[in-house]
Design a protein that fits this description.
Blueprint lengths: L2 H10 L6 H6 L2 E7 L4 E2 L7 E2 L12 E2 L2 E2 L1 E7 L15 E7 L16 E6 H7 L5 H9 L1 H20 L9 E2 L3 E5 L23 H15 L7 E5 L11 H7 L7 H4 E8 L11 E7 H5 L7 E5 L2
Antiparallel strand pairs: 1-10, 1-11, 2-9, 3-6, 3-9, 4-5, 6-7, 7-8, 11-12, 12-13, 13-14
Length: 303
């Protein structure tokens, strides 16, 4: 969604007089809607479902039970201007509990996992589809033997991996959009980003319009959102940033600024994850800057 589209939509919901001010309270994010999902292609490095590529060296577990893979994201697929913290180049692979009995709906470092695969490991473990590389391999027995060994190793890894539920593999391209907080702007709100302009929001006249407008920005139907990175979370229940901060030992006094939505998977209608629920992966901006993806907290919410 572009700036012009945002302003035009605000005018349609009778908020044109404060459209720029509302836009200033938004946080850039990327999303994929149900209508944008497609059958995954062989060359896709960003997708939902399927199996992780390249396969992890050690499949993540919780309580000695294999976690379920739900998708991966090539960080290069995210527009650089969207994230306030520079993302490392590579692939993020996301894993969630295989069933409700393996979590208690509280923020956890253990029941969900994020594996980061650096660019070098990607190149070493990715299937070869480049005709030029194949041609060179035929002419070079040493290169051919290396390609065969890489394929054999991957195949062997695939055969020894745990086999939890595998969901249909779907590819997509991210859509950038300005995410809005669940409530209308308040000058004293702790969630306001640093970009927010100072203005008086007329609750009597514009509150209902704001909720309708926000729903429109989210593509009208809450259930049409399937995945999101960054920005304000479309929470199924309460705000998660303060709760995650508490569980993490209160490292931040500005929870809405410092806790970043690394990835959200919306499977409320099922089909993308083990539960009909929403999965939110949170990371502190300092950990994101240092690529410490072992410090990601998973929150699970149900409608």
């Amino acid at each position: 969604m572009t700036r012009d589209q945002f302003l035009q939509l605000a005018a349609e919901y009778r908020l044109g007089h404060v459209a720029n001010e509302i836009l200033s309270t938004s946080i850039p994010a990327v999303r994929v809607l149900e209508s944008a999902l497609r059958p995954a292609q062989t060359e896709d490095r960003t997708f939902l479902g399927g199996t992780p590529l390249p396969p992890p060296k050690e499949w993540p577990r919780h309580k000695n039970v294999p976690l379920t893979f739900v998708g991966q994201v090539a960080t290069a697929s995210i527009p650089p201007a969207v994230c306030a913290v520079r993302l490392p180049v590579g692939i993020l692979q996301f894993f969630v509990p295989p069933a409700p009995e393996y979590h208690d709906y509280e923020p956890s470092l253990d029941c969900g996992k994020v594996i980061f695969v650096g660019s070098q490991s990607i190149d070493e473990g990715w299937p070869v589809h480049d005709p030029d590389v194949a041609t060179k391999a035929v002419a070079n027995p040493y290169l051919l033997s290396r390609l065969f060994k890489s394929w054999r190793d991957r195949k062997s890894q695939g055969n020894t991996m745990p086999s939890p539920t595998v969901f249909p593999k779907r590819g997509f391209e991210w859509e950038a959009f300005p995410s809005l907080y669940a409530l209308p702007p308040d000058p004293d709100a702790i969630w306001l980003p640093g970009t927010a302009q100072s203005f008086d929001f007329n609750y009597d006249a514009d509150e209902v319009n704001y909720f309708d407008f926000r729903r429109a920005v989210l593509a009208k139907n809450h259930y049409s959102l399937r995945a999101q990175m960054l920005g304000f979370a479309d929470a199924a229940q309460e705000d998660m940033e303060p709760i995650v901060n508490t569980f993490a030992g209160n490292p931040s006094s500005e929870v809405f600024r410092d806790w970043i939505l690394l990835f959200a998977l919306h499977s409320s209608v099922g089909g993308l994850a083990p539960e009909a629920a929403c999965y939110y992966f949170w990371i502190h901006r300092d950990d994101l800057a240092d690529a410490r993806f072992d410090n990601v907290w998973l929150c699970i919410q149900r409608d």
